[in-house]
Amino acid sequence: MTETLEPVAAADGSPLARLFAIVGEIDTADEAEQRDAAELAAGHHLYTQYADTLDRALDQDDWTGHPAVKNLRLGSSAVAWLHGGLWLHHTHGRETDEDRDVLTLIVPCSCGRGYVPYELENEDDLLKILTGLRPTGGHVTHEPGSGECDSVIDLLAQTHK
């Protein structure tokens, strides 16, 4: 017969209690370091790849870092609020065997029920999307008669025609 062991609280001052405290301190420090590193990486990516646009518009303090979510296999990331419902999301991801920065512009739909993400490859992509968003005040135009938020007009696809 198999017995089920119940979790036991560590007594104050015991080696197990001290180990739990150490692990808690390490996790907290690791998360803070990940947040800082994510913010720094986002700022550096804008400085090197978006010097004429995003780097001029955003300050380093505009980024909020987030630690990795290990059980979901999500790396640390940073987000910046642009205003009007628009966000930037930056992470350092892996595509095949090549490390690369991934910058995504998250744009609200004009229907008010969702967002459309645009993964930006370069400053030209950003300029094309912003040109399309300018007349709508920063919202993606909802596809008429569809009723579904994911059937929005793709600004990048329109500009590549």
Brief summary of the model shown:
Helices cover 34% and strands 24% of the residues. With 161 residues, it is of the alpha+beta class.
Structural summary, described in words:
- With 161 residues, this protein is of the alpha+beta class.
- The protein has one domain (15-159).
- Helix content is 34%, strand content 24%.
- The protein has four helices and five strands.
- Strands 1-2-3-4-5 form a five-stranded antiparallel sheet.
- A hairpin with a 6-residue loop joins strand 4 (98-108) and strand 5 (115-120).
- The chain starts with 14 loop residues before the first helix and ends with a helix.
- The model has no long low-confidence stretch (mean pLDDT 80).
Order of helices and strands: HHEEEEEHH
Count of alpha and pi helical runs: 4
**What amount of the residues lies in strands?**
15-25%
Unreliable spans = none
Mean pLDDT metric: 80
Distance between the termini: 69 Å
* Rg measurement, Å: 22 Å
Oligomer: single chain
Number of domains: 1
Structural class: alpha+beta
- Estimate the helix proportion, in percent: 25-40%
